[in-house]
Amino acid sequence: MGNFFASNHNRKPVLPERVLPEHVLPELTGPYPSVIKTELVTEVNSDVTDEVKRLGDFVHLTSKAADVRNRYTPAKLSKHTSFIENNMQTLVGKVGEYDSMLSSKELLRRGSSYSGTKVMRPDEYDYMPILANFNTNTVEVEDVADTCYDWYRDKGYGYIKVKPGALSIRHNMKNTRYNRFKKYLCSVKLFSELRKLIIKSLQHMDTLTFIGVRDHENTNAQYKRGEISIHRGMHGTSFWLRVGGPLCTTDIDLCFSIEGNPTEQLGPCLMVNGETDKDKCECGYSYSQHWMKSVINPPVNTKYVLSESHMELFLTLKYITHLASEMSHETDPETLSSYTVKMVLLTHQQTCKAVNVGECFMDIVRRIRNDKDINNLHIYSPKYTHDVFFPERVLYLHKSHSRAAIAWFMFQVSHTEDDGWIHKLLRLTQEPHTPKWWDKQLSKNDRDSRQLRDLMKVIKTCDSWHYESSGYDQLRLEWYHRDGSVKASLTLEYK
Ligand SMILES: [Zn+2]
Ligand SMILES: [Zn+2]
């Protein structure tokens, strides 16, 4: 494969993508404090172009239409959420009954379903059970060594040392690895124990029917209510369950964690790890002994919390990313995670002086491209952003389907005066569809479909890059001035 999909570092990292929490957001208005805003509104407002206004309107409209809370009644949503939550409480409780060492003291609710950022359907829930018996009496978190690989050094990783005599011999054997007279918790061992107990618990749940270990990545089968399966591997740092819920088939990430030392600036921390190989780091310990800090309750300020208009943009970008995946014929299209999109937005927010969120949309496109020329974009080169909680951590943005679709929307919305196609699209996406359905629907020769056919071309071009056997298609789309000269172009090319 060419460098577009090349690995970014020598080894497979545990990306913090779906692990770090999103928060319940306070009522903030505008992208920056209101004092500055008043001045800027009078000063800059006249400079807002029609292109920017159209993008801003699109963001307002799309974020409302995509927000799961505007698509289901509160009663239906709450019934669905209770079903998922109650079953997870029971599951985690059973695990603790089978082995009290692995009991959890709390099941933290995390992720988009709890932070008001879920789009389309309530089909993803995230929980962090906190293991009760790995606490300050039994374990101690130490910073990783200076000799660690760059991926771990100074990026908020730690070893979890087991205090002498704190665990029974049986639990020491099961959960730790021994290095130079110290015992450190090993996630491969600990999680293999947890996996056995999760499966045993699922087999004995009264309210659920366990249908086995499945490959969740390569299927999107719909489950009957109460059917539940577990993914064959880890999902980042989490166990990945899939359950038939009252409203839809729902994915659940269960990220078992251990209380860590609080960070001075970021507050309380949990340690998480989803390593599945036992290879060794330069420091001499296996990767499975390098635990990652995850912030659970960071300070509420503009550095860590999105403003209201940036929240709208977040939902809009998630909608586009979702749509690109739905239209793709690949089973595993190149999709930016919600966490990465949020980090790009938070990074943007730190310097945002926009009066209209349309300008923010343009800046986000700038940030996920390498091109400086916003009017003639080329999509091929990998780019990265930083985690705002741990700035030394790098998040890669080389996700072609999402990046190409986001760029296409920016051009299409800003350079098209007639917005009939947007309303048509929002109507069509009220229900989920297969790529085949989209092909058929868009082959109808009506005016509003013409724009959406271009989007389909963008997605298919990215599909063609996914496997070498299908060849590498190229695509160039152009938008024109009234006199017919080229105003903007988007080139998709595999290099
Ligand atoms: Zn190391
Ligand atoms: Zn902004």
Describe this structure in words.
This protein has helices spanning 34-44, 50-66, 74-98, 112-115, 169-175, 187-203, 308-327, 338-349, 357-367, 400-414, 420-428, 435-443, 447-466; strands spanning 104-110, 124-131, 139-143, 157-162, 176-179, 182-185, 209-214, 227-231, 239-244, 249-254, 258-259, 269-272, 291-295, 376-379, 384-386, 394-396, 475-480, 486-492. The longest helix is centred in the first third of the chain and has 25 residues, at 74-98. The chain folds into 2 domains: 3-66 and 302-492, no CATH class; 74-295, Beta Polymerase, domain 2 (2-Layer Sandwich). Strand 15 (384-386) and strand 16 (394-396) form a beta hairpin. 36% of the residues lie in helices and 18% in strands. Strands 1-2-10-9-8-7 form a 6-stranded mixed β-sheet. Strands 3-4-13-12-11 form a 5-stranded antiparallel β-sheet, with no helix packed on it. The chain has 495 residues and is an alpha+beta fold. It has 13 helices and 18 strands. Bound molecules: zinc ion (2 copies). Residues 144-145, 148, 152, 281-283, 285, 290 line the site of one zinc ion. Belongs to the mab-21 family.
